[in-house]
Design goal:
With 482 residues, this protein is mainly alpha-helical. It is 85% helix and 0% strand.
């Protein structure tokens, strides 16, 4: 067995498992924390954080500058490479912090929300804290030490969750969310630096910077466009409507993203270093690509259709009736997020094969279309805006798959044919649950539990009878095969 085969069969499955544990254990804790805090805090307070998060997301992309993935892509990294990336991240974080510190009053005036000024200034501290641990996290990722990262994330989630809930109960309002974020970043930074055992160095090499930034800058452009895609909604909603509307839309968007963003993030985080290792082995790369699409689709299709069907009783029983306006938004956005993982995996392959510029081209072309749809649909309300997300998601994925096939040599449509079968199972199950709660069943907690369990059992049995090979791949994620 050669080295690439060993990585694919053993380390990938194990790394996916531990990265999934990292994502979903922390997400599970954060989900429970958010449920408690959403019942305590107002929808407007969540909306304020949603607006602030837009500016934090842009700055976070600028701080990283694609250097993390450049380090992972580079097969042999020297000490000066890591040190140069460390210096760059910290300097960029300081610059971004100062910019947001002085621009905070202008942003507050634009949205006519004075509270944005102090909260944005405090939350921006996460830039500096996160930048200090950036290289340490990259080292752990490059070495596929996801077990250690998962434990750190789990402990951090518990720590920050306790703080957030306590402060919310004590009446801190929006500041409970702000300080929860800052303290979580601080705690995570300390733990990562200790575990990675990386001694912070401040040596800087122009040669190393040019090499890393030359690769990373191309991804930076696509990252900034992607951040614009995902954050332009709260930016516009906050201005056109109000903070409460931002709260409804962001809550719906966050729940619809639970599986697509996080699970594709799990695979992407693990598969990028593996794709980079196999970048010259076309046959094995295509096989791994197809398997990644199939497994991810089996989870995301079923998860989002199930969430769509259970949205009404879930929202009512979890975070109370005050959040019910986000139910139709959540159901529509679940459809919009069905195929988001395709572009995420395609992008990882292109970057691993040395085509970060192509990924930038893909996102650049789809940007005008997405913006056009958003600016038109927002005039007709939040529901229309959500349906606009469905249209832009479908059209953008079709175009990106066409470009991906041209440059990667892999036919995504061939790999996706197998995933269509999953739609014919999960779709009717989710739609059936939606109709049950709309016309027959009361949205009680007991009915929610019974229907949810029944949906899962029906899905598993259907896969076992019709597509046992897909079920076998899912089992491999939780049971490591040697």
């Amino acid at each position: 067995m050669n080295s690439s085969e060993a990585i694919t069969r053993q380390k990938v499955v194990n790394s996916v498992k531990w990265t999934a544990i990292e994502k979903y254990s922390s997400q599970g804790i954060q989900f429970l924390v958010s449920v408690v805090m959403a019942r305590i805090l107002t929808t407007s307070e969540y909306g304020i954080i949603g607006i602030i998060s837009v500016f934090l997301s842009f700055s976070s992309m600028l701080i990283d500058s694609g250097l993390e993935r450049a380090l992972i892509h580079k097969k042999i990294c020297t000490a000066i490479d890591f040190s140069t990336a460390n210096v760059t991240n910290i300097v960029f974080s300081l610059i971004c912090y100062l910019i947001l510190f002085f621009c905070a009053p202008l942003i507050a005036d634009f949205y006519d929300m004075p509270i944005i000024t102090p909260t944005l200034r405090v939350m921006s501290l996460t830039f500096i804290l996160g930048a200090v641990a950036g290289v340490s996290r990259t080292i752990l990722t490059k070495e596929l030490k996801f077990k250690k990262l998962s434990l750190i994330t789990l402990i951090t989630s518990i720590f920050s969750g306790i703080i957030g809930i306590t402060m919310a109960y004590l009446g801190w309002g929006v500041w409970a969310l702000v300080l929860q974020s800052v303290l979580a970043t601080l705690f995570s930074t300390i733990c990562i630096i200790i575990v990675a055992k990386y001694k912070l160095s401040f040596r800087f090499s122009r040669t190393s910077f040019k090499e890393l930034f030359g690769f990373g800058s191309k991804m930076l452009g696509s990252d900034l466009i992607w951040v614009l895609f995902t954050n332009i909604h709260p930016m516009l909603i906050g201005k056109v409507f109000n903070a409460q509307s931002v709260g409804f839309y962001n809550r719906a968007s966050a729940y619809s993203d639970l599986l697509p963003t996080n699970f594709s993030g799990v695979l992407g985080k693990v598969l990028f270093p593996v794709f980079s290792t196999l970048q010259d082995d076309e046959q094995r790369l295509e096989k791994l690509y197809t398997k990644a699409l199939t497994v991810t689709s089996a989870i995301i299709f079923s998860g989002n259709f199930f969430l769509m069907g259970l949205a009404y009783p879930l929202i009512l029983n979890m975070i109370s009736a005050k959040w019910l306006p986000c139910v139709p938004l959540l159901q529509i956005l679940c459809i919009a997020r069905l195929i988001s993982h395709v572009n995420a995996i395609n992008g990882r392959v292109l970057i691993a094969k040395g085509f970060p510029g192509v990924f930038l081209k893909m996102t650049s072309v789809t940007l005008p279309l997405t913006l056009g749809i958003i600016f038109i649909s927002i005039n007709f309300g939040l529901i229309a805006l959500a349906w606009g997300s469905v249209i832009s998601s479908l059209t953008g994925t079709v175009y990106c798959c066409y470009v991906f096939k041209k440059y990667s040599g892999i036919d995504p449509w061939k790999s996706l044919r197998g995933t269509i079968r999953i739609l014919f199972i999960s779709g009717p199950i989710g739609l059936g649950a939606l109709l049950l709660f709309k016309y027959i069943l009361a949205p009680s907690l007991l009915n929610l539990f019974i229907v949810g369990i029944s949906m899962a059992l029906i899905y598993i049995v259907a896969l076992r009878l019709l597509y046992p090979e897909i079920l076998a791949e899912l089992v491999n994620l939780v049971k490591r095969k040697r």
